[in-house]
Design a protein that fits this description.
The protein is an all-alpha fold and 325 residues long. Helix content is 65%, strand content 0%. It is built from eleven helices and no strands. Helix 6 crosses helix 11. The termini are far apart.
Length: 325
């Protein structure tokens, strides 16, 4: 069965890209959940840890005197207003997604990617409150970029790796735009997956990923240490922090997947795009020059382009820089 499907996809790449498009629409719906819920889950976990540290250990005097209650016999203390609920009560799976306005749970029929939003004309089925166009946008962008990667590489392991990397980069982009945060729970698995793919799959002629184990290890180290050095140099010169450690880890992950040779192209693309957009936002939208701007989305976009067109971009960079004639 699988052999027949593989043969069909190999003969008809458009069918493969179309199948990836449909699957990626559903994944895009899940990425919306990740982008919204993961930062909240992390904040609740941090606050719970802070509360635990602030509370401190129980008094040994009270325990020896028998006045401290055991967990089994203790009477629960009512939660204070605004207290953070248990981390377990808010996960990627629970509670069910609901309308932000009326809190009505969203029915499965109203959760079909893109289609439901169009059918409901961008409004809640229960209260008719507007639903952000961001949700279908993330779904559609996920589907389009995934299908593009599948078409570019053709059916095979490389395409599967590229699509998985695409999904991770989209999630990181959305979270960094909203919270200026690149979660370790995404960047570190992406980094380790690149290293493991280099060992388990290895390089293939004419494709950008995975690379050899040697290139992956050097790429991961070079990606992390290069931005780490820039961060500390900038802090020494200005007394300010120009980026976060999540940017180091994302750049390291890109190096693990695509090797060290492509990193100069990625950082130049990311920095150039970020600087250009920053200037435009200052000029046309009056953005405060001192306001921090997330760098992760530009790294992700540059990394995705390098993943598909890395060799062409590298050749162009070498010609422009005069290193190749």
């Amino acid at each position: 069965m699988f052999t027949d499907i593989a043969a069909l996809y190999a003969v008809y790449p458009a069918l493969f890209a179309g199948s990836v498009f449909v699957i990626a629409l559903m994944v895009g719906s899940f990425l919306n959940v990740v982008i919204y819920r993961l930062p909240i889950m992390m904040e609740r976990e941090w606050r719970a840890q802070l509360d635990e540290v602030s509370a401190g250990p129980p008094s040994p005097i009270a325990t020896s005197a028998g006045s401290a209650k055991s967990p089994a016999s203790a009477t629960p203390t009512p939660a204070a207003p605004g207290a953070i609920p248990s981390v377990d009560s808010f996960t990627l799976a629970t509670p069910r997604s609901a309308c932000p306005a009326c809190k009505t749970p969203i029915k499965p029929i109203h959760n079909v990617p893109v289609v439901s939003w169009l059918a409901l004309r961008g409004r809640c089925a229960a209260c008719r409150a507007p639903i952000s166009a961001r949700y279908p946008t993330v779904e559609l962008v996920t589907a389009l970029l995934s299908a593009w990667a599948a078409w570019h590489f053709g059916f095979g392991v490389t395409a599967c790796c590229a699509v998985a990397v695409t999904w991770a980069l989209i999630a990181l982009t959305g979270i960094d735009f909203d919270h200026q945060l690149l979660p370790d729970s995404i960047t570190l698995p992406l980094l380790w997956a690149g290293l493991l793919a280099a060992v388990a799959i290895g390089p293939s002629p004419g494709v950008a990923l995975p690379v050899s184990p040697k290139d992956a290890i050097i790429g991961a180290a070079a990606g992390y240490l290069s931005l780490w050095a820039v961060f500390h140099a900038f802090r020494l010169l200005t007394g300010k922090e120009g980026m976060g450690y999540g940017d180091f880890k994302l750049f390291a992950a890109l190096g693990a997947w695509m090797g060290w040779k492509i990193l100069p192209v990625v950082i130049l693309l990311a920095a150039g795009t970020g600087a250009g957009l920053g200037v435009l936002m200052i000029v046309f939208r009056g953005r405060d020059r001192a306001a921090p701007m997330p760098f992760g989305p530009y790294l992700a976009a540059a990394g995705w382009l390098a993943m598909l067109y890395g060799q062409q971009l590298l050749d162009g960079y070498l010609r422009v820089s005069g290193l190749r004639h």
